[in-house]
Amino acid sequence: MTEQDQKDVGDLLKYEDGLDTAVEFWIFATNLGDKSSYHWLHSGRSVIYSVFYNNQPDNADNTENCLQIFQLTKGNFFWNAVPCAFNLRFICQYKNQSSGNNGIGVL
Prior knowledge:
mainly beta, globular, 107 residues, 32% strand, 10% helix
C-alpha cells in the first residue's frame, strides 16, 4: 500500500453510505516483531502515512499491536492501535469490471 493508497482509504470511507460513528475497521498493519514501528502485513513495508487519534498509539496494557481506523464523527476517520484479537470489520479493494477503476467495499 502506497502513501497515497493510505490517504485514499480514509477519503473513500467518508463517502461510504450507511456508516455510523461507531464503525471500526482493520487496516492490517502491526508492530508485532518490531515494537518501534508499524508495518503492513501484506508487504512488510513500513507505515509511512498515519492519522493517529490524539495521544495514539499508546499501547495500553502492552497489548495493542494492530491498527484500526475508526470514525469519530461523520466523515472524520482516525487510526488507533488495538489488540489484534478484536473483532472488527474489513475494508476490501476491488476492481470495478465496468469502469476498470478501483473501489472499496466494507464487510
